[in-house]
Amino acid sequence: MKSSLWQAVKLVFVKEFTVGMRFKAAWAAMFMFALTTLACVSLALQGGGLEPKLSAALLWIIIFFASMAGADRVFADEDTAGTLLTLKLYGGAQPVLWGKMLYTFFLLLVLSFFIAPLFLVLTGTEAVAGGVFLLTLFLGTAGLAAAGTLLAALTTGAQVKSGLFSVLMLPVILPVFLPAIFLTAAAFGAGEVPVSFLGGMALYDAILAMGASVLFDYLWYED
């Protein structure tokens, strides 16, 4: 990435981070959903444990729906304030895309690493393969960020934005979501770790990011 482009990406990231820290709407929605869900799971289990496969599926369901509470707000501030056209005039497509994608990745990564330890403690689950578990969280979050940023741009201005975003998001993220569940289950002791799934997740993340980069130019400069 060229130096000038990287500087522009950093400016967009800093802008997103500053706005996020000032208003905290996305942060509050995501973390409150996560806390509420984890509390319900803990109360329902009443000290009992879960099978590794069930634990893995439940963890990623919580991460997915918690991320949906904030990932669709990538362009919400500009859309609500009416400054989206100004951003289009003064911000290039690629710096805006990568800056917002990087911020979304940071936001979802913080969310995932907030949820995961609490989930392990509250469900009594042990991560046998800790390195694989952390890498799976990282790759899964990267896929959510790439898909979420592009779909947020696609659904900006839609009257049923939240519902449309979730409907579009699930099929796009399934090639990341399903391997993440299998890898997490293996990391929780459900069997051998399918290491090839990590490569598949990384490849699909790269395809999502590059696809978003190509498509975003058409979205950004569309009349």
UniProtKB/TrEMBL annotation:
Belongs to the CcmB/CycW/HelB family. GO terms for cellular component: plasma membrane. Keywords: Cytochrome c-type biogenesis, Membrane, Transmembrane, Transmembrane helix, Transport. This is Heme exporter protein B. It is found in: Membrane. It holds the Pfam family CcmB. The chain crosses the membrane at residues 25-45, 57-76, 97-122, 128-152, 164-189, 201-221. The keyword Transmembrane applies. It comes from Selenomonas ruminantium. It is a multi-pass membrane protein. One of its GO terms (molecular function) is heme transmembrane transporter activity. GO terms for biological process: cytochrome c biosynthetic process; cytochrome complex assembly.
